[in-house]
Amino acid sequence: MYLPILRRYSKFRLLCVIPILLLILITITVFHRRAHTEIVRFSPLEEGIPELIHTINKEYVPLIHQPFTLSLIRGIIIFYPHDQENSFLSELFWLFRSWIEMMKDEPPSWRTDLVIYTGVFTSNLQQLGCIFNRIRIDRKERPQCRVFPYKRVHLRNVSDKIDTDDHLFQQFDLERSILLKTYLQTYEYVDSINIIAECYISFAMYDYILRTDIDVFLTRYFGRFVPFNGTLLVGRGGYSTPFNTARLRRIAANMNWLYANITNIGSTWYGPPRLAQRIANFSLKAMVHLSTNEFTEPERQRKLGILLWPDWYYGVLLLYSCELAINHLKLSENIDLGLAYTLLDQSTTDRDQYDMEKNNRLHLHSWHTLEKFSKFEFKAGKYNRIHPRKFMKDTSALGYAMRMALESRLMSHVGLKAELMNAKK
Ligand SMILES: *[C@@H]1O[C@H](CO)[C@@H](O)[C@H](O)[C@H]1NC(C)=O
Ligand SMILES: *[C@@H]1O[C@H](CO)[C@@H](O)[C@H](O)[C@H]1NC(C)=O
Ligand SMILES: *[C@@H]1O[C@H](CO)[C@@H](O)[C@H](O)[C@H]1NC(C)=O
Ligand SMILES: *[C@@H]1O[C@H](CO)[C@@H](O)[C@H](O)[C@H]1NC(C)=O
Asked: Which residues cross the membrane (predicted)?
């Protein structure tokens, strides 16, 4: 009906062209906003962590940005102990909830999968709508929860042949597997690093991966930002003391490894998959070395409890090992590393309404605390009578964690699955 008019009157044509040009202009300005393309700089220093002071170095300042790119894929990578679902399902629920919340700020064409390594595809995982043993082959496919079978180190029988039908996307280094089985029998956290070393094929396609624990929350800022230019960002830990720093420096020398004096490295990594696998490989070597040479049998058997924390504690063997690996690779291979002490592994107890936004906190981690938000209090049902609505307008880290956790509890499998289906319409 309009077309003949357009053809006849150039004035009409002009009238049509102007709004289209305007639309293009608006799109460009919206997507090219300063905030979207600017590289954000953060000081890795935080008040109250004096031991970090000697590690400040311009070289390690974490840079994040929002690239102006249409296609970007990321994987959130976790190890999920299926035989301890009682304790971990509620954490998985709130991580799942925050994963969907994060997508509200994510550019529409980006895709972020939740990638879970576990022994059994449990009915809980199935009810959440997760898919089994299927890697991402299409960059445009909607975000998925992907479950891959993984056999825990302590359950391995080195004389068994691995079931290759099931473990399609795993590369076994038999020799290493035997070493781990022999020397890290009692260290249950070895699997959370070993998945990065062994299961590379299942996450190699992602531009960035986030290796993290389950008791964490992705924030809306995670939806916007990725590490700049192939850097791997590490979060913030709280295990370093002058004693163990000196000891780890000495151990590095024993191992013929270099040590760059980077301490208090958190358990979360955010960066390119290949670099993550390199660090995981070295961390496993360090784990075997530490476990056999630097801990006694009663310590390995956990007979001392937390008596030696924080100076020298078997429970955080993984963190000591990663510290050794990262320090060595920084100096020996000059890996691109950012100390994201103010971006990843952030506290869930902060009440400041402006903090998350001002400091672009990407990721919260529930520490050992009974203060709100506490994972212990939440799991003990202490917050059950609080309605998540109460935190609708609360923009603090505490409010966000409370709302995500409480909502995930009320939504359960069905609600979470439905939200995920609607997330990238
Ligand atoms: C390992 O497998 C072999 C043969 O498959 C079996 O004889 C042995 O008992 C197994 N060992 C353990 C610890 O399961
Ligand atoms: C980004 O990485 C490339 C290749 O590693 C390097 O040549 C370039 O200088 C880097 N850019 C910045 C701004 O660091
Ligand atoms: C690390 O700290 C020690 C002791 O303070 C110092 O001797 C060494 O040179 C430092 N190493 C690097 C790579 O900065
Ligand atoms: C990590 O170790 C595995 C098994 O030994 C090896 O295939 C892989 O190439 C290593 N990855 C890197 C990045 O060094």
From this structure: 12-31
